[in-house]
Design goal:
53% helix, alpha/beta, 5-stranded mixed beta sheet, 3 domains
Length: 385
């Protein structure tokens, strides 16, 4: 019973210490000028303990300091030449409204600050001004008539729309900017002179094109040669692939013969005069021959990104790929007891049937495909939002 009382008192003391530390955290933030944190922690504490005097005092002081400093910052920004000052003002008013909302959802806090300011009108005015600035910047960038400036214009219109959803004709301007900002890339067919591997080549080509369509970069569109012709697409770039060299199924046969022995084999058992049995040990031998048939398939893919207007090579990468297929088996001549378990298991195997050339081609292009993804992704990611 005494132990239970001690445990209860210890737990109570621990809770009191934690309560005190937590209560002090808000005031420490206040002393350091971290007013937002001081407010947040004080509100949290007052929700759990409405009569916490220290939290009440901290909340009032931190709120007054925070509002004063933030409004002073708003006034400073309004008089500044900062192009994006209204966006910063939007952030400040949004923060102030968030603080007010936090206080309004805390009954104990409302007793301390019953009239926390809500800057609804000021926030909407700031958003409108921010949208105007971004919209006008977008219009100016469109006038430059370059792909890069059109991309910047799109970003400005997109930002304007985030402040005022239906500001002026922002949707129309977004469409105009995106059309001017988009780099159109045509992927050319990969030439293949081997008719027997045509199907595998088409499979590899389809995988690359499927990857291109999955990138979904804002300012890049990929087209097949057929689609570009069908829809009369004027490309900015060509994506060109060509195998510099490849070998499919180069065969290599490796044989090795060794003599194996086991000197702990029971050769016979003799009956002794005392009617007991005696095991006679001896050495057994066998000629063990292993076979390893391998097919090596290798290739080197040349990838180029070519400027459609100048025909200049913008990027070029050489990507190697290798696939090794092999089958193993063994035979022996002599006493099977000379073999280890693994050797014996190997003699039970028969040579596997090699994959067809189509499959070997696909296998050696798999590591090449991973390199293609990396190089293309690294180049075109800069054209994303």
């Amino acid at each position: 019973m005494k132990n239970k009382i001690k445990l209860f008192l210890f737990t109570l003391a621990a809770i009191s210490i934690i309560f005190e530390i937590s209560s002090c955290t808000g005031s420490r933030n206040l002393d350091k000028g971290n007013y937002d944190k001081a407010i947040s922690r004080s509100v949290k504490k007052l929700r759990k303990s409405p009569n916490n005097k220290k939290a009440q005092k901290t909340l009032l002081a931190a709120y007054n300091h925070a509002v004063k400093l933030k409004i002073e910052e708003v006034n400073r920004l309004k008089n500044s030449s900062d192009v994006y000052k209204w966006e910063k003002i939007v952030d400040i008013y949004s923060n102030l409204n968030s603080i007010s909302s936090n206080i309004e959802h805390c009954p104990a806090c409302l007793k301390i600050i019953p009239d926390a300011n809500v800057y609804t009108t000021s926030l909407e005015e700031a958003k409108t001004n921010a949208a105007i600035v971004r919209y006008n910047l977008g219009i100016e960038q469109l006038k430059l008539k370059t792909i890069a400036s059109a991309q910047d214009a799109y970003r400005h219109f997109y930002k304007a729309k985030s402040y005022i959803f239906n500001y002026k004709d922002v949707d129309k301007q977004l469409e105009i900017a995106l059309n001017a900002a988009t780099i159109r890339v045509v992927m050319e067919h990969i030439p293949m002179h081997s008719h027997s591997l045509k199907l595998s080549n088409e499979f590899f080509e389809s995988k690359i094109f499927e990857f291109l369509n999955s990138l979904n970069y804002e300012f890049v569109r990929f087209y097949s040669s057929e689609d570009a012709q069908t829809y009369n697409i004027k490309p900015h770039q060509y994506l060109n692939f060509r195998f510099d060299d490849f070998v499919v199924g180069q065969q290599n046969m490796y044989e090795k013969e060794i003599e194996v022995k086991n000197d702990s084999v029971v050769l016979k058992t003799e009956l002794m005069p005392d009617k007991t049995h005696k095991k006679i040990y001896g050495t057994v031998k066998a000629d063990f021959r292993t076979y390893n048939l391998s097919l090596t398939s290798t290739g080197l893919l040349d990838m180029k990104i070519i400027d459609a207007n100048s025909n200049a090579t913008l990027v070029q990468n050489k990507m190697p790929g290798t696939y090794l297929w092999e089958t193993k088996w063994a035979t022996y001549n002599g006493d099977s007891r000379a073999l280890t378990i693994s050797q014996l298991e190997l003699t039970k195997l028969r040579p596997a049937t090699p994959p067809p050339p189509q499959q070997l081609f696909i296998e050696f292009t798999k590591p090449i495909f991973n390199q293609v993804k990396g190089h293309i992704g690294n180049y075109y990611k800069k054209f994303n939002m």
